[in-house]
Amino acid sequence: MDSKAEVAVSGLTVNYLVDPRGIDDRTPTLGWRLTSAERDIAQSAYRVRAASSPRYLAQDRPDLWDSGTVASDRQVNIDYGGPAMTSRAQVFWQVRVWTGDDRPSAWSPIAHWETGLLEPGDWTAEWITDSTARTAGPLPIFAKRFTVSPRRRIEHARLYVSGLGLYEARLNGRKVGADVLTPSVTDYRKRALYKTYDVAEYLRTGDNVVGLLVGNGFFNVPEREGRYWESVTWKKGVAGSGETIRLSGRPKVIAQLEIRYDDGDVERVASDATWRVDDGPIDFSGYYGGEDYDARRWQSGWDRPDGDHSRWRHAAVAAEAPATLSAQFEPAVIEAERLPAIALTEPEPGVYVFDFGTSLVGWPRIEVEGSAGTRIALYPGWYLDNGRVSQNGMVGWVPNVVVADHYTLAGGGVETWQPRFGYHGFRYLEVRGLPNRPRLSSVTGIAVRAATAATTEFDCSHGLLNAMDRIADRSMRSAMIAPTMPTDPNREKAGWQADRGIALSGVHRYDFAAYNQAMLREVFDAQRADGDLPGIVPDPTDFWYIGDINWSGAPIVQAHESYRRYGDTASLRRHYSGMRRYFRLLCSREQDGLYPAGDIAAGYFGDWMYPGQHWQHPFDPDNAHFTPPEMTVAWGYWRIATAMAAIAQALDEADHALEYRGKAEAIASEYHRRFFDPATAAYARGAQTATALALDMGAPPKELRDPVLATLVESIRAAGNHLTAGMIGLPAIVRVLTEAGRHDVLHDLAVQTGYPSYGYWLEHGATALPESWEWNGREGVADLNILGGLTSWFTGGLAGIQQEPDAVAYDRIRIAPAVVGSLTTVDATVRTVRGEIVSRWQRDGDAMRLDIVVPANSIATVVVPLLRGDAEIIAPDRARLIDRNDENATYRTGSGAWTFTQR
């Protein structure tokens, strides 16, 4: 390294969050990134200092913690070593590092974090609800008037709020915060989440008013004739189901405002029976069926000091409350996009249909003018039927119900409105009841998702592949409504855990470090006494403790993948005992060396959504593509055992790791013994999924691996270079073919336009990933992220960006791009906890240029594909050649920008 290299420390994180406010972790973990224009930057030591005030850091007086100089290359998951955190604590901190020349960097910019209310006794507020006994009708609004002293200066002010189910906080006529659909869904019987807001800017001297609107959310899904609520009836009353959490009564809220003055005095405004409540403008709040809003009931000034609450009722203190109030630390859901309509039609007089050009998950915003009492109806949908909106794929199998939002005008000018407490998946919006023909700009589509950073960019010279990547990204965003990533944004809105795991397998797209931590919290909240985990989280009825361990065990696999990607051992340690309990339960159910399987009625789904599958009868032995659930469950058993071994190793539990590795090897061996046909070198008649799962496990003995791989390739070729796998088999096929270097096969799969393929979907108008290969643009779920696995090959194969197999948090990476087919350019960026990895190549005949960027404190193995065996490679200085054959030249580099050319 150049002894004069400048290294900067930036991107400081606490529990993988930037400057978090209101966390409840007493011993958080820290991380940072290094940047430099120079190559070969490697951290050799670090020093962290933390103080209760920025001025102490400026004086080099860290009164909370000084790590001293620590000889280490670690830069993620560093345990905070100061005193255990207390409630409302503010910590300001900095980092400096040493690199190979033994020179310290400059101190990083100051970052900070703040704790929330860590002790139950910190809450003086009480849960409050409407004082009426009714279970339906207008939802309540709450308000409390208070005074801010004009003689003292506010040092800071915090508002802590939670709701069962959703809330919108307001102060002096303004919405507090940019978050929507708050708080995240939990099992409300066990836990509710609160948010911490900095509200100093909302306050003023003298009179102030804090207000709360509430919605039912997932907490309470009321029935209303003609409105969709199928997912509740689907689970309610099922034999064996428990008490539902979706029919929990009127919404409840808890709020505590704390104003700290510069003299140290703290004033609290806490929810209790002195708060006032009245009927609000929301007449119906259905998480599935939509929202009805009567603007005539909006009381002007109710959330401002000039409002009149004299005729309002007193709030009632709620009789029941969740067992635990915890901080919502995961990124909030926000309005991420505003999509203008691209077309407006009038298929029938007075019926207007807006087209937003793409599937989105969120809600419409309308601008309308008319007389008081005019009722506007909004019907979202993915499809058109004779020009009208069709809700096929949205309302399940319940007849004579719709998803709709309604707005009743107050009159007196232009009115703007959007729903607050529910969301839909849709492309089109049918509007009825308008007094006049609307403008194209009268309706906007609001797409919502978690406010977490995008981490992947991909572009190439093949338009079809770019389109595939675009629709996969759209469906990923559509699921980012809660940490459990509920799939199907209309019909179920349920956190199917295999769906989440499959969607994230091998895919980088967004920063899910904190999301994964929150997911594990919800999963292990739901763990039964016997160790079992549900396939849906949260499980609303205690019914979905299903048999198929590819669903219930998916969070353990995700925990391991999250550790590899982010280096998060804190989450592993927190939930390790629960993971062990779950795996012991699986072992106790083992039969003849494998986990037993059942039918769909017992909650076994097999290779869900393989081509030709009927959802009601998914197990069809006569279908040549069918892989029996015995095989998919066996693979799931192996995958969970493999993840457990790696997790144990990460936690220095060597004996446990040895035990789990032995179990995984035994499962793979038994899979081969039971299902392999030596006469055909095939599993399950050569079905793609069965074969790929065997290879993924390493089940075939070494001498059979090439013949079994050939069976897989032959199956794909025989299918006309089409996939015949479902959601379980697809990611395994991508992994196996990538590891084998069969990028030619993956390319040929990716560029198809006939059924079944991504191109088939796109030619039928897909703007997101449909649920089924059979999707034809007219029916079914049009946005569900379970069959997007092939797009992981774009960054992992075409750009070749991967971690080394035993690497953690990208400390060692591999860049091995695939130059295949007619592609002439590929450009990909993956943002990691260490910084950006870039792989960009272009070819012209037998000439090629490869530009890469390796983040600081990482080393890379760079595999340059040779377009000719005798090609001349021009490599940068300090890129060390470690191998060359007729196909590749392999180099080792440190961090920085590197260019390799061949001619």
UniProtKB/TrEMBL annotation:
<dbReference type="InterPro" id="IPR012341">
    <property type="entry name" value="6hp_glycosidase-like_sf"/>
</dbReference>
<dbReference type="InterPro" id="IPR008902">
    <property type="entry name" value="Rhamnosid_concanavalin"/>
</dbReference>
<dbReference type="Pfam" id="PF17389">
    <property type="entry name" value="Bac_rhamnosid6H"/>
</dbReference>
<dbReference type="Pfam" id="PF08531">
    <property type="entry name" value="Bac_rhamnosid_N"/>
</dbReference>
<dbReference type="InterPro" id="IPR008928">
    <property type="entry name" value="6-hairpin_glycosidase_sf"/>
</dbReference>
<dbReference type="InterPro" id="IPR035398">
    <property type="entry name" value="Bac_rhamnosid_C"/>
</dbReference>
<dbReference type="InterPro" id="IPR016007">
    <property type="entry name" value="Alpha_rhamnosid"/>
</dbReference>
<dbReference type="InterPro" id="IPR013737">
    <property type="entry name" value="Bac_rhamnosid_N"/>
</dbReference>
<feature type="domain" description="Alpha-L-rhamnosidase six-hairpin glycosidase">
    <location>
        <begin position="455"/>
        <end position="775"/>
    </location>
</feature>
<feature type="domain" description="Bacterial alpha-L-rhamnosidase N-terminal">
    <location>
        <begin position="153"/>
        <end position="335"/>
    </location>
</feature>
<protein>
    <recommendedName>
        <fullName>alpha-L-rhamnosidase</fullName>
        <ecNumber>3.2.1.40</ecNumber>
    </recommendedName>
</protein>
<dbReference type="GO" id="GO:0030596">
    <property type="term" value="F:alpha-L-rhamnosidase activity"/>
</dbReference>
<dbReference type="Pfam" id="PF25788">
    <property type="entry name" value="Ig_Rha78A_N"/>
</dbReference>
<dbReference type="GO" id="GO:0005975">
    <property type="term" value="P:carbohydrate metabolic process"/>
</dbReference>
<dbReference type="Pfam" id="PF05592">
    <property type="entry name" value="Bac_rhamnosid"/>
</dbReference>
<feature type="domain" description="Alpha-L-rhamnosidase C-terminal">
    <location>
        <begin position="800"/>
        <end position="869"/>
    </location>
</feature>
<keyword id="KW-0378">Hydrolase</keyword>
<dbReference type="Pfam" id="PF17390">
    <property type="entry name" value="Bac_rhamnosid_C"/>
</dbReference>
<dbReference type="InterPro" id="IPR035396">
    <property type="entry name" value="Bac_rhamnosid6H"/>
</dbReference>
<dbReference type="InterPro" id="IPR013783">
    <property type="entry name" value="Ig-like_fold"/>
</dbReference>
<feature type="domain" description="Alpha-L-rhamnosidase concanavalin-like">
    <location>
        <begin position="348"/>
        <end position="448"/>
    </location>
</feature>
